[in-house]
Amino acid sequence: MLLTMTRWHPLEPADADFFTSAPEIHRFPIRLSVPPARVWESLQSDESLAAWGASVKSVTWTTQRPFDVGATREVVLPLGVATVHEKFFRWDEGQGYSFNVYECNRPLFRRFAENYVVEADGSGSLLTWTVAIEPAQKLAPILRFGAPINRLAFGQVARSAKKYFAENP
């Protein structure tokens, strides 16, 4: 039997400033008909975004609860696109979190980070999701050309969130 080892490609760290300075930034305000506590429950659950639809294949927390700054997890994207390891640099219990990808099994990114903010919005909530990307140097032209496609792909997560919370209040 031949065993193959995953080759991990380290990424440079990102912080809150990256959400305004990254070469590619996608921001999705998502109005949901459930209270903020329900959105938060889902975000920090064992399945997290994987429960929302096909945009994320699986999420495995690699840190014990309770989660906080420094928590880590592994996220597998569908169709073998990539597997990433994430580390949280902001954790505001019940209100949101931010993480950066610190390594990926494919050399796609120089830096990659996501930010989630959960707020009350009338009788529901507003989830603002921001994705910030700096591609690996050799992929920069492709990423610039593909930015509209990336926005559409990331937008699928927003659409999935709406559907998920409508069906799972």
State the main characteristics.
single chain, 169 residues, alpha+beta, Alpha-D-Glucose-1,6-Bisphosphate, Chain A, domain 4, 8-stranded antiparallel β-sheet, 3 helices, 8 strands
Brief sketch in words of this structure:
This protein has 169 residues and is α+β, with helices and mostly antiparallel strands.
Number of helices: 3
Portion of residues in beta strands equals 35-45%
Count the beta strands: 8
Shape designation = globular
Regions with little confidence, pLDDT below 50 for 5+ residues:
none
Described by strand count, sense and barrel closure, the largest sheet is:
8 strands, antiparallel
Q: How far do the termini sit from each other? A: 47 Å
Rg from alpha-carbon coordinates? 16 Å
Question: Within the CATH hierarchy, at the fold level, what is the topology?
Answer: Alpha-D-Glucose-1,6-Bisphosphate, Chain A, domain 4
Classified by CATH, the class is Alpha Beta
What number of structural domains do the residues give? 1
**SSE order in H/E notation?**
EHEHEEEEEEH
| Helix-residue proportion | 10-25%
Explain the overall architecture.
This protein is of the alpha+beta class. It is 24% helix and 38% strand. The protein has one domain (9-167): Alpha-D-Glucose-1,6-Bisphosphate, Chain A, domain 4 (2-Layer Sandwich), CATH 3.30.530.20. The chain contains 3 helices and 8 strands. Strands 1, 2, 3, 4, 5, 6, 7 and 8 form an 8-stranded antiparallel β-sheet that branches. Strand 6 and strand 7 form a beta hairpin. The longest helix has 28 residues, at 140-167.
